[in-house]
Amino acid sequence: xxxxxxxxxxxxxxxxxxxxxxxxxLQAAGFSATxxxxxxxxxxxxxxxxxxxxxxxxxxxDHVHPQLAAVLYAGDRFESKELLLQKIxxxxxxxxxxxxxxxxxxQCARLEGAERNGLQQWIExxxxxxxxxxxxxxxxxxxxxxxxxxxxxxRKGARDYTDQEADLQESNLPYLEKVRSCYLEIASQRDxxxxxxxxxxxxxxxxxxxxxxxxxEHIRAFSES
Length: 225
Description:
The protein has helices at residues 15-28, 45-54, 66-79, 81-90, 100-106, 113-130, 146-153, 173-189, 208-224; strands spanning 3-8, 33-37, 93-97, 138-143, 193-197. It is an alpha/beta fold.
């Protein structure tokens, strides 16, 4: 049976780098492994709309209700459902660079209390119930501060959905800190989430391979359980 793993974290946390590293290590260990990155900006109609949203075409972050933004991300994953299910059917491990957990953190971070809980439940009902998307067996949250996130985003190369140094979400540090808090809240409440510290006790970045080693150990332990 295939294992579905989602790597989560705020912008700049190193999700893409760790996805690539994990894929290499899994393949070297003899697993049939593949990956998929979300959003799929240039591959789906909803992905293109997400690019427009992040570039401010629909207005500022506060002008787009999080429930409407969540529909764009859910639509992108729904358009990719057949591809995802094919990968699951044909591989031992499928590693996702962002998945439904991203919407739970990013969109719900803009609400509080009962409204936040209500939106989380609605997103999961749409994604898993209405669209029939699979639930990851394991969600791995790479945790970094919003300040470090901003520094790492500035180092990123060109991306296919924006020509800006930072998109609508990446440039908003207070928002990113709320997203981080929301991620941590989710991870603390769910057994299928694991927290991977991206910083050491002195708030310095851990090395890529140190983080990668911890991620790989979680995967190996889960596969043997």
